[in-house]
Amino acid sequence: MKHTVVLIKGDGIGPEIADAVVDILAAAGAPIDWVEKQAGLGSLHLDPSGLPDETIAAIREYGLALKGPTTTPVGTGHKSVNVTLRKTLELYSNVRPARTMPGVETRFSNVDLIIVRENIEDTYAGIEYSQTVDVAECLKLITRPGSTRIARYAFEMARSLKRTKVVAVHKANIHKVTDGLFLECFREVSKDYPDIETGDIIVDNCCMQLVTRPEQFDVLVCPNLYGDIVSDLCAGLVGGLGVAPGGNIGERTAVFEAVHGSAPDIAGMGLANPTALLLSAIQMLQHLGYVQTAFRIQNALERTMKDGVRTRDLGGSASTSEFARGIIERLESIPGELEVPTPIRVDIDEKVAHRSVKTECVGVDVFVEYSAGLPPMPTQVGPFTLKLISNRGTKVYPGVPNPDVLLVDHHRCRYTLTDTTNREQLVTNDEVIALLQALSQAGVQWMHVEKLLQFDGRAAFSKAQGE
Questions:
Q1: What is the mean pLDDT of residues 363-390?
Q2: Helix (H, G, I), strand (E, B) or coil at 116
Q3: Rounded to whole angstroms, what are the CA distances from 60 to 6, 23, 31, 131, 187?
Q4: Would you call 251 exposed, middle or buried from its count of C-beta atoms within 10 A (0-12, 13-18, 19+)?
Q5: Residues 396-427 pLDDT 10s
Q6: Which of 284, 309, 426, 466 fits a 20 to 30 Å CA distance from 80?
Q7: Which of the four CATH numbers 3.30.10.20, 3.30.70.1570, 3.30.43.10, 3.40.190.10 does domain 359-459 have?
């Protein structure tokens, strides 16, 4: 059985390294048929965004793409094309292996790990606001379906590649609700994989451990922001983005890519290093379940580099085509076998999408603008009592004023019910609206309001300091 894959050669050195990778996969007998499409600067005549609809349609149709580096007309590098692909195709999992390569001089010689990064949510949802002239806000969105899906993919991938340990990276000691949910989902999913060792680590400790003892890690699964940082850190451990592959995987489609730039200054000179794109193609084969074929190409690549056949950026003198030929020659000495693929499959249970739990509102946080110290908030409004005021997350009321706290013009004011006895429903929508109307009449400049919810009697909101 052959698989049709959309080939996006990209800009700059993209066509050269893409041609080299196509030749290597053909020599390895990889069951791939290519359909070439365009993205980046070379496609501006088709679409001003640099990503034509026909390219997206082809990826949807065939489910797979291998993408070289692209340059887009917005911003720098090729990020905007990648972000558009991830969002449009719901490529929820970003997979970045980091493996020490022969002949690439680094501080460590024993790195072999994979970062699995949630690719859609977190602060990368891009929901930001200016609350006041001095205060900006970004919403960090972590969802149960998104966290469960990325955790399950990490475990399924680990099992498929015979990895033995999966560790969740988080900051749940501080972000108790958002990262707490991510960690809760990870632990719940881990119960289905008793054959795989599990653990979790706080992100700052993870970074320190990575630059001191990276060999202790196998698979790291991260929320979006931490995964972005950790994956580039790990690329630095093994020699940089020139040897760093990447895959963006969704439930129906997957795009594998070189994460480095298009290097237009050396385009057409035969100097480009195809290693990152080749490693991405190896990832693609693993995703399809052709693990042995992928291993065979990886083995040939490493033998080539160990034998001193390297491109200029790795300290050698081989051209792009000479480097590819070196890999192909070594492939011939590594026996190939007829392989029955076992692709990675991640099935998300429907119950993950929504849980039926008892939800009640127990109060509200009202965010107000006031620049002359503490805002003059009424302490009693209808059934509500002002419980606390915080500024930048620090409690400033009630209590003795702290002269060391820098107050900005944005305050969180928490109101809860004075009396909760004999109430069938704790806080109603009408009561929240009446509270806001009363604050407006009192001259309070409120910016937005957040309900304080509890699920099955458990608080689903952050507690303020001293509460």
A1: 95
A2: strand
A3: 10, 25, 19, 39, 32
A4: middle
A5: 999 988 889 999 999 999 999 998 887 777 99
A6: 284
A7: 3.30.70.1570
Domain definitions of the chain by residue range: 3-331, 359-459
Check whether 350 has a pLDDT greater than 60: no
DSSP tag of 122 = B
| Secondary-structure class of domain 3-331 per CATH | alpha beta
Nearest to 14 by CA among 46, 32, 41, 34: 41
The neighbouring-strand residues paired with 96 are 115
Asked whether the CA dihedral 165, 170, 174, 179 is positive or negative, the reply is negative
Burial class of 361 by CB neighbour count within 10 A (0 to 12, 13 to 18, 19+): middle
**Which residue from 236, 237, 230 is spatially nearest to 169, judged by alpha carbons?**
230
How far from the centroid of its chain's Cα atoms is residue 273's Cα? 26
Segment 31-59, tens digit of pLDDT: 999 999 998 887 877 777 788 999 999 99
| Range list of H helices, 307-446 | 320-331, 429-441
Sign of CA dihedral 20, 23, 27, 32: positive
Q: Token pair for residue 284?
A: 């693609």
Q: How far apart are CA 40 and CA 48, in angstroms?
A: 9
Structure tokens at 324: 């590819």
